[in-house]
Amino acid sequence: MESERTDTASSGGPAGYASAQDLPSVRQLRQQLGQARVLRFLLPRDQRPNLAAIERQLQRLCDTVDDFYRVLGPKNWIFHENLPVDDVEELLASGDGPEAAEEAFIALYTDYDALALRLHVINKLPALRKRRHLILKAHEDYAAGRYYSCIHLLLSVMDGFVNEFETVRRGLHARQAEDLHAWDSVVGHHMGLANAHKTFTKGKSATNEEPVYELYRNGIVHGSLLNYDNVVVATKAWNRLFAVVDWANATIKEKTPPPPRPTWKQLWRSLSELSRHQQANDAWNPRRVSKDDAGFAQEAPASATGQFLTAWTQRNYGRMAQWISQPLQGTHGAAMPREVRMQYADHVLTDFAVLAVDHVAPASCLVEIELRLAGKPEDEPLRTAIRWLYEDDDGEPVSSLLPGQWRLNCWEPYRFVPPLGFG
What we know:
Blueprint: H1 24-39, H2 51-72, H3 85-93, H4 98-110, H5 112-118, H6 126-129, H7 132-143, H8 147-165, H9 193-201, H10 217-221, H11 231-255, H12 264-283, E1 287-290, H13 300-313, H14 317-321, H15 326-332, H16 336-344, E2 349-361, E3 364-373, E4 382-391, E5 405-407
Antiparallel strand pairs: 1-2, 2-3, 3-4, 4-5
Helix pairs in contact: 1-2, 2-3, 3-4, 7-8, 8-11
């Protein structure tokens, strides 16, 4: 099996991967598929993973990554691992050129709900988790069009996170391109993070009032670039943050000893699991179920919302904490109820209604609710929504058609979908 951690250009060295096809995990999976094909006919038909479908999906992913970098790489956009492949593939297939592709790509970030869902990645890295409150504030600023604030917050988060992440204390601004080698990651593409980093470190000492559309950290932080307050630069700050997260995860993976060669049983189980997840994603369809529709009572997110809000009315912060995403619970441990109390103690919920469930993605849904808060007029209930994420036993987002549980990732009261209604 593929287990080398080499430094050649084709395997992610300073020059980066020439293609997504060169990623070690891609080469390993292709090798496993070839080996599994020999054995698949020894099993009953209903137990065979769909190897052809997995191969097509793998090829599609590699082609999308390479096409992305061909079209948007020159504009210093980075393909990171939690981008929606279907949407990226669609915007690239339009054939309308880099400008139109860039506009459509930015729209993937300006979608408030989609960006909120993507933020689950910040829970996995301790040095990033402690900066979560700043990232969430940047999200609110971005949604409100306060791009200048969002950019500065994310620049500070990236510098602080990278400085703390490794024992060598250097922020992102002090790193050279070769320091951002990302082993076995799509951000390690030769047009990826290391390539885009040249704008981050580029010196901009002369005062400039012309509009800029690159993430020139030096000129922005030191006050020489005065006209950076726009959605392009702010979105590039988000794009760079997610790429840095991938780089950090790749760094951890590269330093982790490779697992032993899997047995045939383990290999088959791995491919079967991959096939099962793909089939679940393919079978999922968006839908909206209102309280007056048949089957609303069987909607698990509606039931979970009712239990969470009931606990809020009772000020049972321990019960509320049980519904929060597992990685976040792991961060706070026994202190999670205290964290919930700190956020909710000043917001007294007197009554509520659960109105509808909107399944917006395989692992995400919005539950529309009506809240009555103490101190608010009785005839002016707050109508808003609460966002749920479907997690497996390891706290990873999975299709709601698979075993798992609905959890709250963005659980703070001010994170409810606008109108926020919390002062």
